[in-house]
From TrEMBL:
Residues 1-30 are annotated as: Disordered. Pfam families: DUF655. It comes from the Archaea. Signal peptide: none annotated. It comes from Methanolapillus ohkumae. Residues 1-10 have a biased composition (Basic and acidic residues). This is DUF655 domain-containing protein. InterPro entries: DUF655, NA-bd_OB-fold.
């Protein structure tokens, strides 16, 4: 008979699609690569805290990685001003708006405009990758003896968790609409995901479900 014991999300080998990671500093070659980003803000004179004379300041783009939700400072192609909230490719050397990646940044380093744009950009990414995130609901498993991975989502407690698990035993959810129809208390399944992604971006989490763990704070 097959082993039906709950799989612990702390063990990467036990997880099929979502890798739950401890808060560690990832090596540069592991987890910092994104092919597509969402533009959050364009800063024509760089960051506000840059105290150099205006003529010395260079423009910056702040962007959100589409896959691992990594935050970046990017160097724009000279003379190009990207529209906010577009998805653009990076890394090939012949990009329309992005010349190169300058640095991976923390949530606190985002401009005010970028922070306002962030939930909208995450929403677009989540809707575009709906099958990836509905899979999280369908394959939810315990992360500890007392907690299921669904309970990591803000707004989902024991009762909602049990309702969702009960429905997945009958049949996996096809999409977000199917989830909302079969579990009416979940009015906006995307928002639960979005809120969790933002929590992970801010750091201090035991488990990183959807994002690469934030880089260590600069001294």
């Amino acid at each position: 008979m097959a082993d039906e014991r709950p799989r612990d999300f702390k063990n990467p080998s036990s997880v099929s699609s979502f890798e739950h990671k401890k808060h560690v500093h990832p090596k540069p070659e592991s987890g910092e690569r994104e092919e597509w980003v969402w533009i959050l803000d364009y800063l024509p004179y760089g960051k506000e805290e840059d105290t150099r004379p205006v003529y010395m300041k260079k423009p910056l783009i702040q962007a959100l990685g589409n896959s691992k939700f990594i935050l970046f400072d990017l160097i724009p192609v000279e003379g190009k001003v990207p529209p906010v909230h577009i998805k653009t490719h990076i890394g090939s050397g012949s990009e329309e708006y992005v010349e190169r990646v300058k640095a991976r940044i923390m949530y606190e380093e985002l401009s005010r405009g970028a922070k306002l744009e962030l939930p909208l950009a995450i929403s677009s990414a989540v809707k575009e990758q709906e099958s990836r995130f509905i899979q999280f609901y369908n394959e939810a498993r315990p992360v500890s003896m007392r907690q299921n991975s669904l309970e990591l989502l803000p707004g989902i407690g024991k009762k909602l968790m049990l309702d969702i698990l009960g429905e997945t035993k009958k049949k996996p959810f096809d999409n977000f609409e199917d989830l909302k129809k079969r579990v009416p208390a979940i009015r906006d399944p995307e928002k639960h995901i979005i809120d969790r992604i933002i929590e992970e971006m801010k750091g201090g989490q035991k488990y990183y479900v959807f994002t690469a763990p934030p880089k260590m704070k600069r001294e």
